[in-house]
Amino acid sequence: MLRVAVPNKGSLSESATAILTEAGYKQRRTTKDLALTDTANEVEFYYLRPRDIAVYVGEGTLDVGISGRDLVLDSHADDDILMELGFGGSTFRFAGRPGVANSVKDLAGKRIATSFAGILSDHLAENGVEASVVKLDGAVESAVQLGVADVIADVVETGTTLRQAGLEVFGEPILTSEAVLITRHGVDQPAGLQQLVRRLQGVLVARNYVMMDYDIRAESVEAANALTPGLESPTVSPLHREGWVAVRVMVLRADAQKIMDQLWDVGARAILTTDIHAARI
Ligand SMILES: Nc1ncnc2c1ncn2[C@@H]1O[C@H](COP(=O)(O)OP(=O)(O)OP(=O)(O)O)[C@@H](O)[C@H]1O
Ligand SMILES: O=P(O)(O)OC[C@H]1O[C@H](OP(=O)(O)OP(=O)(O)O)[C@H](O)[C@@H]1O
Ligand SMILES: [Mg+2]
């Protein structure tokens, strides 16, 4: 059985369970359950902290897991990132009281609080900056007010927590993160992993694309195809009406309205979009 680690709580948990459910896997009924066996798909799910998932998978104790790119890098575990999952987006940034620093170069000799000491130390070393790292478990934004640090390095999503603490980001983002699927580096892919990856990719396609149908005069089909090249190639079928064809093609959901306007301008009519419920590409 494929052994899969899933975040048990926190920012990644709900979306991780949702994407697995959408991919046709059984998920735990209550947040108290520690594990669940999906016999039909021959997969065992283990619900763990995403920071620990990077370690379990890196050690090879579990075959594959969902964690955050920042947590994987921070752990220095022996993981490979197989795919990005399109949720749990955040940036990892420096922040401090206004004017305290403008870039990483200003941090020499300063005290920096973080719960990602691995990422922070790597970043300071890359920039040749010597500073002292104050390792905290959470609520890092309070460290400046409480006097244990001069600046912080933390996860920023909306920036609300920083504003509430009277802090501002400075310097370039240290990294951008999102939820990722990981396996142990350098091992043969276990049975069932390819199926999991294909199913998750299918969910991402269904979420990110819509199906678009339209009718157009045959002489304009090349102009329309330039706007909607599709993943492979559009399906073009004859219409009963002489000189017209029907086109069916996948387009990015985010671009759909703009493309419908552009298709209209090159003569397409009866332009429809429909949701895709599942896909294998
Ligand atoms: N607003 C956010 N706050 C914290 N982490 C976030 C946020 N948005 C996305 N993430 C990502 O979630 C992962 C952190 O997972 P974790 O389970 O520790 O979340 P958490 O919400 O901080 O949980 P908790 O603080 O309750 O332990 C990281 O990969 C991080 O980049
Ligand atoms: O930019 P925002 O949308 O405000 O989100 C970022 C904040 O959310 C997380 O804190 P969390 O609630 O997980 O508490 P923690 O610091 O104790 O982990 C993270 O550590 C930041 O503090
Ligand atoms: Mg947190």
UniProtKB/TrEMBL annotation:
Q: Kindly indicate whether the keyword Transport belongs to this entry.
A: no
Q: Which residues form the ATP phosphoribosyltransferase catalytic domain?
A: 49-202
The UniProt entry, under SUPFAM superfamilies, shows: GlnB-like, Periplasmic binding protein-like II
What's the EC number here?
2.4.2.17
Per its Swiss-Prot or TrEMBL entry, what cofactor is needed?
Mg(2+)
Note the Gene3D superfamilies from the entry.
3.30.70.120, Periplasmic binding protein-like II
Give the main localization category: cytoplasm
- What Pfam families does this protein map onto? HisG, HisG_C
Q: Where would I find the Histidine biosynthesis HisG C-terminal domain in this sequence? A: 206-277
Q: Kindly give the InterPro entries that the UniProt entry links to this protein.
A: ATP-PRT_HisG_long (IPR020621), ATP_PRibTrfase_cat (IPR013820), ATP_PRibTrfase_CS (IPR018198), ATP_PRibTrfase_HisG (IPR001348), HisG_C (IPR013115), N-reg_PII-like_a/b (IPR011322), N-reg_PII/ATP_PRibTrfase_C (IPR015867)
Pathway field of the UniProt record reads: Amino-acid biosynthesis; L-histidine biosynthesis; L-histidine from 5-phospho-alpha-D-ribose 1-diphosphate: step 1/9
Q: Which GO terms describe its molecular function?
A: glycosyltransferase activity
| Glycosyltransferase among keywords | yes
Q: What is this protein called?
A: ATP phosphoribosyltransferase
Q: What is the lineage of its organism?
A: Bacteria, Bacillati, Actinomycetota, Actinomycetes, Propionibacteriales
- Gene responsible for this protein: hisG
